Amino acid sequence: MLKNIHPALNADVLHALRSMGHGDTLVVSDTNFPSDSVARQTVVGRPLSIANLSARDAIRAILSVLPLDTPLQNSAGRMEVMGAPDEIPTVQGEVQAEIDRAEGRPSPMYGIERFAFYDLAKKAYCVISTGETRFYGCFLFTKGVIPPAGV
């Protein structure tokens, strides 16, 4: 255990989050996402796991240390429901609330068509799979920056 670090953030996840640079993306996926095959094409090259948590709880842990990119560009995306791209399933609503809480303001997610999501995921820095069993619990986040003190 470490002080002030969410206990769900294991060493592999912390290393990946710390190693990412501004503009790098990460995928947080549900249990149905092809995490292994997609993760093999990412920078990390293997899937990471926070398997004992829902998407909401895993993202809460991740956003406790990961800055999202500025509101000037998309920083949080969600996999769209096939045939209903504007539908927001409960799992996505829960994650939206976590993003807004972490950012201290409304920060709406953008939708990504399912197959486009897979293509973007293959270019990500890493894939972190969760224990989320609900459909469409897949998200893409872009890392932001932490400004120097006093700026």
UniProtKB/TrEMBL annotation:
InterPro entries: RbsD-like_sf, RbsD/FucU_mutarotase, RbsD_FucU. GO terms for molecular function: D-ribose pyranase activity; fucose binding; L-fucose mutarotase activity. SUPFAM superfamilies: RbsD-like. Keywords: Isomerase. The keyword Cytoplasm does not apply. The keyword Isomerase applies. One of its GO terms (biological process) is fucose metabolic process. Gene3D superfamilies: RbsD-like domain (3.40.1650.10). It catalyses: alpha-L-fucose = beta-L-fucose; beta-D-ribopyranose = beta-D-ribofuranose. This is Fucose-binding protein. It comes from Neorhizobium galegae (Rhizobium galegae).
